[in-house]
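Good morning,

Attaching, inline, the backbone tokens for the sequence recovery test we're adding to the shared suite. The designed sequence is right after.
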């Protein structure tokens, strides 16, 4: 059974509610479209956090008759929807900022607004780091995506604070909508990356980087030309927190079932030591049988 990580989603929801209040208050006080753009992104954070709570509850369910490999792929729907919502927020910001460029309006009380924005950025930064750390520890793409989104919000807030600060110092009101447009471009990139990662997971993306390298290294250690032992058809995939490894082990046909089974068990034990909770499917074949090589190129 997957561990219930919903407490982190509740933390994200709490942070989103507080920062929405702070940023909305800053916008009302100042009338700055730059601050409005940042508040809009925090509204997306709230919706994303609620969705994350729902998804984390689903993936914590044990495998059942209709989902024999569990519910881990639900995480990709969460990150995909979150990416889509970020794109929608970006479009809203672009439209609002463009309208302000066409019809300039003066902003006021920027000092108080900047203080509220700074407090909101600190809250998002702390919570974002907590979520990313939890996401790495529990291999949760949902928590990682939510944490990255919050950190993106932090950098967005920093940019807005700098931009609005320049408006306050220089009196150049046009900087306000320009800052908002830059914010929109920044979160467009974030939304696109989240959606791309989600699609990769739904398409059964293979393990990569050091993880895939370690799989190959562990299995390579069991190859032996002298003993006619080989491994082929190694396949991997990642589904949310769940990892899958498949391989075929070729041994001399004269071996007993016990010999082959003992070797497979040793290989799987090494893989599970490196990848706790991994799902392994192995197949034992006689190295002399030509049928063992029919789909070796897959």
């Amino acid at each position: 059974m997957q561990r219930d990580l919903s407490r982190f989603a509740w933390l994200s929801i709490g942070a989103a509610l507080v920062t929405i209040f702070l940023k909305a208050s800053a916008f009302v006080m100042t009338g700055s479209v730059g601050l409005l753009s940042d508040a809009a992104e925090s509204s997306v954070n709230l919706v994303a956090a609620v969705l994350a709570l729902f998804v984390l509850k689903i993936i914590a369910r044990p495998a059942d008759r209709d989902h024999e490999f569990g519910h881990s792929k639900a995480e990709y729907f969460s990150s995909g929807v979150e990416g889509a919502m970020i794109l929608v927020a970006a479009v809203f910001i672009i439209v609002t900022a463009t309208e302000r460029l066409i019809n300039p309006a003066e902003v006021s009380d920027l000092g108080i607004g900047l203080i509220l924005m700074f407090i909101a950025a600190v809250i998002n930064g702390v919570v974002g780091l907590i979520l990313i750390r939890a996401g790495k520890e529990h291999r949760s793409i949902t928590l990682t995506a939510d944490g990255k989104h919050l950190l993106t919000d932090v950098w967005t807030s920093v940019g807005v604070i700098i931009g609005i600060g320049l408006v306050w110092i220089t009196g150049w009101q046009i900087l306000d909508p320009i800052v908002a447009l830059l914010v929109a471009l920044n979160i467009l990139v974030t939304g696109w990356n989240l959606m791309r990662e989600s699609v990769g997971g739904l398409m059964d993306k293979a393990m990569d980087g050091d993880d895939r390298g370690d799989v190959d290294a562990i299995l390579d250690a069991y190859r032996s030309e002298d003993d006619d032992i080989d491994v082929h058809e190694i396949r991997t995939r990642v589904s949310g927190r769940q990892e899958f490894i498949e391989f075929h082990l070729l041994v001399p046909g004269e071996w007993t079932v016990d010999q082959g089974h003992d070797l497979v068990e040793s290989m799987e034990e090494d893989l599970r030591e490196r990848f706790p909770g991994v799902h392994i499917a192995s197949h034992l074949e006689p190295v002399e049988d030509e049928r063992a090589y029919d789909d070796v190129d897959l």
